[in-house]
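Hi,

Apologies if this is the wrong queue. I'm a grad student, and the batch job for AraC family transcriptional activator of pobA from Muricoccus pecuniae produced an output file that my downstream script rejects. I'm not sure whether the problem is my script or the file. Here is the sequence I used:
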Amino acid sequence: MDFPRSPAPPGDPEGRAEAGPVPLFDLYGDTPRDRPDPVHVEPLVTRSARHGWAIRPHRHRALHQVFWIRQGEGSLLGAGGEARFRAPVLHLVPAGQVHGLRFDPASAGHVLTLTDGFLSGCAGLIGAAPMPATIASLSPGRAAVLAGEMDALFGRLEAAFRSLGPAREAALAGHVLLLFSLLRREAEETAGPGEGGARALLVRRFREAVEQHYRSHAALDFYCDRLGVTPSTLTRACRAVTGRSPAALIHERLLAEARRLLRLGSRNVSGVAYALGFEPAYFSRFFQRHEGMSPAAYQRRHGGSS
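Support response: The file is valid. Your script probably expects a header line. Output copied below for reference.
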């Protein structure tokens, strides 16, 4: 989705968190679990009030979050510093991004948390990556227009999350897909017909092609031929819209699927490598370089078998 991005700090062009003193959580303040819920929904007050309405800077390795603030105000700390906001507003925080929030105690809304594996499935159904590459926010004007739909949708999400019926998982998945479909529609409508809109459309088409072919490790020229553009045109569009290169977007998709398969545990590391078109030794180096740990260590940490 092509919303305004928080600028990255110097020396960190993609806004990714560095390993170090920044806490790494599943849900903020909770002890990490081997298998977090694929979808978790809670009212904003649940966790924020417990922590004095101040969520200190932290990050999530494999969890993505959507904050819908329907009432109140506060500030969001991202890679580009601290920015004030006033409701209604929606914030998208992809996995790995350092973020912190402060809220006025009268604030109200919801927090949606999604695992990488669940989000990968959403990407296949929506036809594009649901989350941006860096922290993004829906513009206040557009959030106000969508406030009624968002309130109703998050209310249904919370009700489905609290339910114990046999259709619980299907209901949650359906509501999440509806949310991201709504956001994608909004991004396309607000992009307009100009250069920004053309670039957004090109990047969407590229990501759809990546979704079909990422396991084949096709070269950039393959995608450019399919899209009818030059490599430099595609690269400029990807950097303008997402802040990342085409290769980084392909690697991001490969890593998301690798993490999903490793957590699933039905394949060992070699099996995951072959499923993604890698030789096992190269896959291990690729995964280690991007994730900071071996695939076997990741699988053990997340409950799979190695």
